[in-house]
User: What shape does this take?
Amino acid sequence: MSKIIFSTGSVPISVVAKVYGKDSCWVRAGIIAGWLPIGVATRNGQRITEVSDISSKKGRINFYVSPKKLYEETGYIYNGER
Assistant: This one.
């Protein structure tokens, strides 16, 4: 069995949304709430875990989606495409 080499960096939310066949908002909410265990959401270095914290008035939320975790959940191998 060949070893899978995962891309470095985060998988874009738009790619994740296509993989799941859902809207980008669904992906973001799932990561924040924890029921989509493929990455983390942070704002100013602090992890965001409540959907009520999504307000843009509080500042930008950064998302990191792990290529390995996405593969483990879906079988999709991210190769750096957008």
The helical segments are 13-20, 24-33, 67-74. The mean pLDDT is 93. The chain has three helices and three strands. Residues 13-74 form one domain.
